[in-house]
C-alpha cells in the first residue's frame, strides 16, 4: 500500500524568509510529481531520493519544475 504525507503551506502564516521546501521520495524517483509542483512554495524545492547516499540522490528544481544547478560547499573546521 502506498502512503503519502504532506503539510500544506496554505495553513502557515506568510513568511517571506522561506526560500523553498525540501522533502524525500522513498520510491527513488528523482523527479517532481504533479503534487510536488502543485504544492511548490518559495523559489526552490529540494528532493532527496532513496538511497540517500550522496548528492547524486538529490535534485533542486525551480517553480517550473526545471533542474537548478547547485554546488555543495563543505564547511571547514
Write the layout of secondary structure elements.
Layout: E1 20-25, H1 34-38, E2 44-49, E3 58-61
Parallel strand pairs: 1-2
Antiparallel strand pairs: 2-3
Task: Explain the overall architecture.
The protein has 77 residues and is mainly β. The protein has a domain at 17-61. The chain contains one helix and three strands, in the order E-H-E-E. It has a three-stranded mixed β-sheet, with no helix packed on it. A hairpin with an 8-residue loop joins strand 2 and strand 3.
Proportion of strand residues: 15-25%
The termini sit apart by: 45 Å
Low-confidence stretches: none
Shape: globular
Order of helices and strands: EHEE
Report the total helices. 1
Largest sheet: 3 strands, mixed
Percentage of residues assigned to helices: under 10%
Query: Which secondary-structure class do the elements indicate?
Result: mainly beta
Look at the structure and give the mean pLDDT: 86
TL;DR?
This protein has one helix and three strands. With 77 residues, the protein is mainly beta.
Amino acid at each position: 500500500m502506498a502512503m503519502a504525507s504532506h503539510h500544506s503551506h496554505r495553513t502557515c502564516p506568510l513568511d517571506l524568509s522561506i526560500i523553498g521546501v525540501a522533502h524525500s521520495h522513498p520510491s527513488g524517483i528523482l523527479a517532481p510529481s504533479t503534487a510536488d509542483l502543485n504544492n511548490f512554495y518559495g523559489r526552490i524545492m529540494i528532493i532527496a531520493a532513496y538511497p540517500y547516499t550522496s548528492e547524486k540522490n538529490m535534485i533542486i528544481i525551480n517553480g517550473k519544475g526545471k533542474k537548478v544547478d547547485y554546488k555543495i560547499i563543505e564547511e571547514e573546521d
